[in-house]
Design a protein that fits this description.
The structure is a single chain. This protein is mainly α. Helix content is 76%, strand content 0%. α1 runs antiparallel to α2, α2 runs antiparallel to α5 and α6 runs antiparallel to α7. The chain is globular and about 55 Å long. The chain starts with a helix and ends in a 16-residue tail after the last helix.
């Protein structure tokens, strides 16, 4: 347990520092530029790893409640330090700080202790929420360097919208639907029989996903209407400035 957490404590800050050093000394980038791109690189790496873990877990668990996979608890232990690192490494809005503090102080204990080894399938589905992060990070970097007029930015925007909608907006309804099939009960009954902790977590996290998706849609509509946003426009309007998969970050 401690070894995996220690590995995460070394890996995520280590990748950030190595990338930052390489961009500054090999590419000649400024400290601010290197910080921004390095932080988003780490976010994307963690997202790819979490999505891969989620796919392996969900595809291996036939019984959504009783089947277990060794990767579930191990990846939780390894990835938890990422959220603590991210608070330090990124320039965050207060909402994002609270979100990451919640992930470390509430989601980690719940995932490791309260589950009691059950529901690995559902934990794997939650890992898949990170699938939208690489697209969001790439979009932010492209806007940072005023590449919002390129085909790459437009294609990435479409993929990001689809990934965020499928992996985050539909995430919690799917969790309830999957349990209703397992228990052979209507979906609305799941709200009544599910542990109150599950309902509370969904009530706290799902509105955030809807809020961020609304902002992403507003930014996408504004970009399509204006053919792109200028650097000054992006600074004034955070709707055009996408950050990590978990939400929105301010431009510096």
């Amino acid at each position: 347990m401690l070894a995996l957490m220690a590995a995460g404590c070394v890996f995520f800050p280590g990748v950030f520092l190595l990338s930052k050093h390489a961009l500054k000394h090999m590419m000649g980038w400024s400290r601010g530029e290197a910080d921004i791109v390095s932080a988003r690189l780490v976010s994307s790496i963690q997202a790819i790893m979490a999505s891969a873990a989620g796919f392996i877990i969900t595809s291996s668990c036939r019984d959504v409640m009783e089947d277990s996979h060794w990767l579930t608890d191990n990846y939780i232990l390894f990835a938890t330090p990422y959220f603590a690192y991210d608070i330090y490494a990124m320039f965050l809005e207060k909402l994002m700080v609270l979100h990451h503090i919640f992930m470390v102080t509430c989601c980690f204990p719940a995932s490791q202790m309260w589950r009691q080894g059950k529901g690995d399938f559902f934990q794997g589905v939650l890992f898949l929420a990170e699938l939208s992060t690489p697209f969001v990070c790439l979009g932010k970097v492209l806007i940072q360097y005023q590449q919002q007029h390129t085909v790459l930015h437009k294609v990435n925007g479409v993929l990001m919208l689809l990934a965020f909608f499928c992996c985050r907006v539909l995430l919690f309804p799917y969790l309830y639907y999957a349990y209703s099939r397992y228990a052979s009960i209507p979906v609305y009954v799941v709200l009544l029989v599910a542990p109150w902790q599950c309902n509370l977590g969904a009530a706290l996290l799902w509105p955030l996903q809807l809020y961020w998706f609304t902002l992403i849609c507003r930014g996408a509509l504004r970009l399509s209407a204006t053919g792109g946003c200028s650097k000054s426009t992006c600074k004034a309007d955070n709707d055009c400035c996408l950050s990590s998969s978990n939400g929105w970050r301010k431009r510096t």
